[in-house]
Amino acid sequence: MAVQTTEVRGRVTFLRVAIALQTAALLFQAVTAGMLLSSSLGALLHDVGSRVMYGASMLYVLAAILAWRPGGGSPRPIAYATGFLALASVQVILGIAHMPSLHVPLGIVMFALSLLALVQLVSRPSAARRAGAEG
After folding, report:
1. 39-82 per-position pLDDT tens digit
2. Confidence (pLDDT) at 5
3. Where do the H-state alpha helices sit in 36-99?
């Protein structure tokens, strides 16, 4: 006898929270980057935000590993999260080196990729829901 499990589409998971936090941190970085031009508080907020964004990227890797491990699914999200952490590392280096010509475009790309990953994660049906539909 097979037991069908279905997951509610809007269910909050650690992976969804991690990617949402990362995306929010990147949006905050964009806002504070604009504030750099007009106030000294912008520099402080951007500096603090960079640490939060880097921590959120590490949290995303941890969440991807924990989401993959119990179900034995595809390790692809781990590769995405690790790649994103590598991009975050490059972004921090470029920021410290004061290279805005590379730092700003990479930040835009990172925000777009993070938002895309969040939308895909929230909109895709879960493995439990697919298994229920197939059985």
Report:
1. 889 999 999 999 999 999 999 999 999 888 766 677 888 999 99
2. 40
3. 40-71, 76-96
Q: Which of 110, 94, 90, 100 is nearest to 28 (CA)?
A: 110
Only one residue has tokens 């829901």, namely: 129
pLDDT at site 3: 41
- Assess contact for 128 and 13: CB atoms under 8 A: no
Residue 46 and residue 130: Cα distance in Å, rounded? 41
CB-based burial, 81-111: b 16+ in 10 Å, e otherwise: bbebbebbeebbebbeeeeeeebeebbeebb
CA–CA distance, 27 with 114 (Å, rounded to integer): 10
Tokens (6 digits) for 4: 């069908």
Q: Which helix (H) or strand (E) holds 122?
A: helix 100-123
Q: Which two tokens stand for residue 126?
A: 């879960």
Residues 6+ apart with CB under 8 A from 92: 50, 54
